[in-house]
Amino acid sequence: MPLFFPSIFAIALTLFSSTATLAAEEEKILRLNVSPQGYPPFTIVHADGTFSGIIWDILALAAERKGYKLEGLEIPRKRVDDFILSGHIDATPRAIEWTSKPERFTFTEPLVEVQEVFFKRRGSQFEYTGPESLAGKSIVTHLGYKYPTLEPMLASGRAERFDVQNERDMLRYLVEGKYHDLAIAVREVGLWHIKREGWHDQLDYAPQPLSSVEYRLMFNKDNEAFVAWFNDELADIKRSGELEVILDRYR
């Protein structure tokens, strides 16, 4: 009898430990900032509380292979860096060029290239050939964003900026008003809103970009091992053609 009890206890303890370990593995969560109201088509917040988008789909595909559950959090832009540094969130989509003191963070390899372009009314003859081509123009810009290339033109008053909270409303000012000539937005973001709002007959864009950067995921430096693994997985996703499948969903 004394031999039987320890055996049962040992078995129960082993089963409990295995169950606890499995539960811990099942609870692995990767927290991604998707931004308030999202940043479509890169991160999209749906009315039912689910998420999608180019960045979301890429990370979800990779995370699933490592046994992580991807969780979306809508963090205001001004708080994101502090939340990454404190560990309250794990990652956010970001270009190195858009980051203050980027050396504080670790970045993945590029997921996609993004370009800021000038949207205009269809039929407009405007072509961007450099800052001087904006002389006399009123430009709808994103509130809080900086445009270093254009700063001399804006500071001198040779071009005018009009700040708006989000890209959809920026484009709406071009559609509904006649007081502004152009709007600056990431090409894919602008095209997403044009498609959703049915503005194809009203809006177009100048192909020459104002800027071009590589969109990555930004992590706390404590996650460098995960970032190294993700970079390998991202390379596989690109080689396999899975990235193109994801991009096609949002074109």
From TrEMBL:
InterPro entries linked to this entry: Solute-binding_3/MltF_N
| Solute-binding protein family 3/N-terminal domain sequence ranges | 31-251
- SMART domains according to UniProt: PBPb (SM00062)
- Give start-end of the signal peptide: 1-23
Q: Which UniProt keywords apply?
A: Signal
Pfam families found in the cross-reference section: SBP_bac_3 (PF00497)
Q: What protein family does this chain belong to?
A: Belongs to the bacterial solute-binding protein 3 family.
Name the chain's protein.
Answer: Amino acid ABC transporter substrate-binding protein
